[in-house]
Every structure is written in structure tokens, then in C-alpha cells.
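Possible regression after last week's pipeline update?

I re-ran a chain I had predicted before the update to compare outputs. Posting the input and the new output here so someone can diff against the archived version. Not blocking, just want to make sure nothing changed silently.
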Amino acid sequence: MADAAPRLWVERLTLTNFRNYPSVSLELGPEPVVLTGANGSGKTNLLEAVSLLAPGQGLRRAAYGDIARASGDGGWSIAARVHTSLGAIDIGTGLASGVASSEASTGRIVRIDGVTKQGSGVLADYVEVAWLTPSMDGLFSGPGSERRRFLDRLILCFDAEHARRASRFERAMQQRNRLLGDNVRDPARFAGLEQVMAETGVAIAAARAEAAAALSSVSERRRARDANSPFPWAVITVDGTLESDLSYLAALDVEERYKAALQMGRERDRAAGRTLEGPHRSDLVVGHGPKGMPARLCSTGEQKALLLGLVLSHAELAAERQDGRAPILLLDEVTAHLDASRRAALCAEILHLGTQAWMTGTDAEAFSALSGRARFLAVDEGRALLRAAP
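New output (post-update):
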């Protein structure tokens, strides 16, 4: 699968004043990368740096000003040589020293082959990254906002416009909420904003519903391929008014219906102090297929296996849609809650996908199934050194 098109991988990664790294440079190959070391040594910081080669705020969603090394000058930089579908390119991103904290929270410098670009969104044209971190272990039992964010991040790997639509919807909704809060009652002040919300909101809902259906289809194929996989097949849907309407109405009809609902619901929303209907209220619903049980009711180990199954299904789907080119996977402390058989199965899945997966753990032996097939690096307080595989 992975050899049908140019692979996506990081050849060189150089960090300056990034988190606990004064300066570090890694030379890599297209194979998976295993980072091992003690807790707090800087393994996750390297994953965060790779995540910032894609649009957005990275896997920690940190304010850009907080990324700089504590004893540095306030600036930080990432330089990478990345092999993409368009060939090898140089990506640079970071924050200049002396930038005010208010400015640091709004943007970062992005350069492609030395040319400065406007905003990090342009990175979606070159790099697709998906990640799984320990903070996501409670995804199925936590707030719906986290599940929406998880799904939206997956969609970005094959629909770069999704983030822009979400941003337009959010801005329009915030402006509408402000009008409601200011007790504005002029219909003309609302009409344009609600039109934007209807157009972008339905597009967001359609992308989510389509992604959920596609992920379910891949999960079903994985079931047929290996019914006893330690990463169980899943039932995946999106629960929301717009998604439900799209199942039996044309998109234009759903837009008109949502626009009318926003107009009729102004006084209700005014009383609530927020917009009560739209894609910001939808929820990703996942079920454990073999057990016929909602994911939120499963054990911690079962939830972790389901989550990994979702990430693997997504990587397979993205590869299918991009001529075999899988996204880069960032799997932080991925072996937690996995027994030996699941660890071995995960390594086999990663090799099958042909992805440059970056994985962290405290014990290199947990990744022994990748011996001779991955780049093993030992991380120690701002240093990353090549080490022999277990």
C-alpha cells in the first residue's frame, strides 16, 4: 500500500530553544521512530515539534509563547526537511524573540522553502499528522467538545478546507452571540451571520458524517481481514441535528432549515446566552463492535484499544485517499494499557501502513517487535541519541 506513492516522512528535524531543547538535530529515515527515556526527559516535546509541522497549535494546543525554553530569549524555532507528495521541502516555523505574549497567542512564523507564508493553514497542503496522547485516553467518557476536536483533526488529513470552514462558523457564531448579548433585535444584523453559519455549519456536519461513515467502512474491512484483531472493530456515527437532517435531505434544504431555526431561535438563544443549535453541539459516538457496547462504558484497556483502532482505521483511510501515502502518526506513551500481544499487533499494523510513526515509551523492550525496522533514539534531558534496537 505505502509504496504506491511518495511517502510522507521527516528526514531532518532541528529544534532551537524549543521546550527543554537548547538545540538538537535529528537525521532520520522513512521508517518508524521510537523515542525512549525517563518521564520528563523530552520525548513528548519532540512529538509536539513534529505536530507543529501541520496546521494549528500542535498536540498540546499550547500558547506559542509557552513553547519557548524557560531560560531562552522567548523565541523558538523548528526546521525540518520533509518528504511530501510534492517532493522534499524545507519547513520552518517558530516564534521570534521579543514577541509580546498577546501576539504570541495568535500566530507563528511559517516558511516553506525559505518563503514566508500567511498562517499555519498552508501546512495542510504538505503535511498530514494524526496523534494519540495519554490525555486522550478519556476521550469516550469526557466532554463532547474533545470528541469533536478529535474527529475534526482526523478530517484535516484529507480535507484541508475543513478547518477554514470551522473557523468561519466559529467567528460568525461569536458575532451572533455578541449581538444577542447586546440585546440587538434588528433582523438585518443577524441575517448575514446566520447565512454564513448555515452554509459552513452544514458543510462541517456533512464532512463529519461522511468521515464517520468512511471510518466505519474501513473498520468493517479490518474486521473482515482479522476478526480477532486486538483493536476491535467499531460502530462510528455522529449525533447531531444537522447530521440527522443530511441523512434524508439535500444539503441546500438542510441549510434553509438550519437558517430558519437560527432565526426562530434568537430569543431562546438570547435567554441562554449562546447559540443552542448547530455543529458545535454534535457528538462523535463510538461503539465497541464485538461487545455491542458504547465505548464510554468499556474498560480503560478496551477504550485504549478502540481508540488505537480508530487511529489506525483513519490512517488506512487517509492512505487510500492519497494514493497509498499514510499520514505521520504521533503515538505518545502508546504502550500504556497494552499487553504484549497488543504491542506486537500495533507494531505490525504500523509496518503494514508504511507510516513514519513516532512512538514514545520508557522501555525500549516494549517496541521489540520493531527491532531492525525502526530508528531507536534515547532521549535524555534535551538530547536525543541514536541507540541500538532492543
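Follow-up from reviewer: compared with the archived run. The mean pLDDT is 92. Marking as no regression found.
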